[in-house]
Write a structure and sequence with these properties.
With 116 residues, the protein is an all-alpha fold. It contains 5 helices and no strands. The longest helix is centred in the first third of the chain and has 26 residues.
Length: 116
């Protein structure tokens, strides 16, 4: 009985591990790195324009690498903290929309990298 349970656990683990995203090739990894930098630069520039702050202020709110956090909210909080003023609802909405576009672009870049 114990062998059956262990066998089922191993089979389940193998099935779940197979569902993981494949690693990109070296060319795909280089492409993804370049695209990530381009997408992040574009996001920072767009948000700085929306909020009327320097790009360095926006970058302070960006997490270092992938995090389980809402980047848009984190950037908004950083801008408000650094400038000492509350952003208008319209500015907040524009920043959230820019963050949604950033996330969608990152997903497309990951998909494209896996094809290289």
């Amino acid at each position: 009985m114990r062998r059956i349970a262990i066998g089922l656990c191993v089979a389940l683990f193998a099935a779940l591990a197979g569902a993981a995203e494949p690693l990109p090739s070296p060319a795909g990894a280089a492409y993804l790195k370049a695209e990530r930098h381009r997408i992040e630069r574009q996001f920072v520039s767009e948000v700085a324009g929306i909020a009327g702050v320097a790009e360095s202020v926006v970058r302070q709110g960006m997490p270092d690498g992938p995090r389980i956090t809402d980047t848009g909210q984190r950037v908004i909080a950083t801008i408000e903290q650094r400038t000492g003023r509350v952003l208008a609802d319209g500015q907040r909405a524009q920043i959230e929309a820019a963050d949604a576009r950033r996330k969608a672009a990152l997903v497309r870049a990951r998909d494209a990298a896996s094809q290289r």
